[in-house]
Structure formats: C-alpha cells, structure tokens
Amino acid sequence: MRSSFEERLRSLKNPPAIANYFSGEGQADTMPPGKLATYQFEALKAVVQRAYDRSPFYREKMTRAGISPGDLQQLSDVTRLPFLTKDELRGQPWLLLTCDKKDVVLIQVSTGTTGGEEIYMTYTWNDYLLHDLAPRYTQLFPVGPGDVCLNALPYEMSTAGLAFHKTFMDGYQSTVIPAGKGGAYSTPAKTIKMLRDLRPSIIVTSPSWSITLAEEAAKASFDPKSLGLKKMWLTGEGCSPAFRQRVEKIWGTTANYFYGSLECGQLGIECDVHDGYHLAQAHVLMEIVDPKTGTVLPPGEVGEIVVTALLRYDSPVIRFRTGDLGSLRTDACACGSTLTRFHMKGRAFDQLHFRGQPFSPFFVEEHLMRMPEVGNWFQFVMPKSDSASIKIRCELAQGVQPSQELATTLANRMKLSTGLSFDIEIVDRLPRPTAKAVRVVRE
Questions:
Q1: Is 363 found in the same domain as 234?
Q2: What are the phi and psi torsion angles at 270 (to 5°)?
Q3: By residue range, what is the domain housing residue 394?
Q4: Where's the AMP-dependent ligase C-terminal domain (predicted)?
Q5: DSSP tally for the chain: helices H, then strands E
C-alpha cells in the first residue's frame, strides 16, 4: 500500500519546516499570505543553516559576504546572501552537496541551450520526497486519480520528463504515459498512435512539440480535438499568447504555461485566467534584480529572476541567478489563488537588441502569430550590423501562396504593429526541432 505523505515525512531523519504547515493535501495555492510567509522564513533559515554548516562552498561565500545564518532576522534578509550563478555550477556536479555522495540517488543535467559546460543537479531521497511530492497546488494543477496524462517531454538526462512523471504518478496518483519527445522510440507517429489507443485526458509538452504532434496527427487523419482533453500544459520553452491560442485551437482545450528549471524545480503555474504565473511559494522564494547591479527591484519592474529553493537541503540552491527575465505583481488574481504572480519576459540571453533598443522575442512573435497568413514555424534572424533589418524567416499557413507582394505586406504590417522594420523571408519548410525550438538566430 502506498504510504501517506505524513508517513513519508516522518521517515526523514529531521522533518523540515514543511511538516508544520502542510499535510500534503494541497493547501499551498490558497494558504493565507501571512502564514505562507512565516513558513517561508522558517524554511529559509533551515536551508541556509544547513548550507553554512555542511558546505565549504557556501560557507566561504557567506563569509566573504559578511553574513551568517544568525543574521537572518526576517524574510527580506535573503537579499543579504550572495548570489549563486550558472558559471559557478558548470562542470561541478558535487559543488552544492551537504551530504555524502553515497546518499545521492539521482543526477540530472542541463539541456545546454545557453552554452558552456553542463550543469549537473543531484538529488537525495530526502530532496526528491520534499521537492517533487509536496506540497500540492491542486487548484492550479487539477490532476488526480482517473486522469491519464501523456507526458511528451524529454526523459533522458534533463529534468523535464521525469519531474512531471513523478508529480503525476506519485504526487497526484494519476496515470502516466511516458511518451517522451523525439527520442529513439518517441517518434511523433508513435505518440499519435498512443493518443488514439489510450485517449489521455491531459497532455504536457513543449509549445513547438505540440505543433509537431499536430502535424503528424494531420498526416494520420486524426483530429486532436476528438480527444476532448481536460487540460494541456506547455513548458520547456516560452511562447507568446498568440502562439498559445493557436495550440488551443488545434487541440481543443485550455493550454496553460508551466515554468521550471533544472536548478530550482517548479517555479510557476499559470491558471485559466492566463494573466501571469502563480509562484510556487511553498517551494521557492523569488526576487527580481537588476541584471547589471544585482539590486532588488520592486513589483512591476522587469529584471532577472533570482530563486532560492526552500525544499532542497542536501544540495541547496540559494539566490540562484536564472538568466530569465520577469516581473512580480502583488494584485489579487480572479482565480482565487493567494499565491504571488509574476510575468515572464524570456531569457536575457535571447533578448533582441536592435539599434540600441532591447525587446523580447515574444513581443515580435505575438504580432507575427496574429497574422493568419503566417504558419507555425519561424525564426528571427538578427543581423551583424544595426544598419540592417531583422529578418523573419517563416513558413506560410496551409493553402497560402507565397509571393513577394505578400512578403512586403507582412513586413509592413509588422512595422505598423511593432514600430520595427523587418525583412520577411518566406520558406517552404523549416527544420522541425526535437530539442528546444530555436527562435532567435544570429548571423
């Protein structure tokens, strides 16, 4: 018989702060903010104390910064702790450990899409139980027994597929179909066959792979809308609201964004209102900082997302600079969740800089995807010189005939809606990615 959350918590050598606040029944998304902040502070102190006591790496960083765990007197004191960067983690699989190597039961690796050496993250059984199985966000993630969940995310090396697999099966007691994403066996054709045979109620995948599967379904004369899906979650790469609307139309269901990372786990879950992510505050603290100065920014201002994991004790992640851009907001959401919301603005690495002005590729994508003549595959080709125009390389929608006149018309519409000049290059077909879709290409 499957043991309860409480029984598994008691099996830990030192039950953490979460044991005093959550029963595993999913109060996280409706917990009163004051109680949630009290839990977060207690959890923060415990994680920082363990890092200071058992990690030479963290102890040295805190000593250089002139701070010790006892200096944390309130939750906002987290800003006094030093940052953790991707460069510090590259090629250092054991750097964060506060336990023996023999206690490690799982190692996962970064996708490598931002370049540089790989980043490895280790899990012990303790961290696996706390981080992936508790607490629940049942209002924002309405999954349970009887749901059949097609998991079309990569399983090999990366964290995405396995993390959702564990959450669906162990955390929410639903049925999982480990479809994968473009591996040796997880071809689009095989996945469509599974859809036909097993009729899932939920799909989790990336935005680009949802389109790849839809194209394969069309070849097989299978209408995705016939599944009557309860929900789709899109994760692993960003996309604009207009692109998401195309996905929803094809699959006939609501598609919500889910944001997480290898280093920090789950970070944000979008509700059906589609007005920002709800921060997984039982799992993490989030700050927004100025990318250049590291100064903490107030709600509403866009900066780099910095995360502290509250449920990682054996490999603590404290004030990790994600390289992603976003902004916090404090107003209430119409869905009723009490969790703080934030908006994603994309990766700092992927931001487009043109003629002295930075802007998000999602901004351009939004306007491009509003034009019905444009298909679902495109790239933004950045020129070497600011004197040239940005090129949009794209396919056309089915049945639309290419012409120079159409390319000019599309370019004029884009300039009118964005204020930016573009050259439109219409192509017959762009490569279909099996990894993350690359939307920004630099000449």
A1: no
A2: -85, 140
A3: 352-442
A4: 361-441
A5: 11, 19
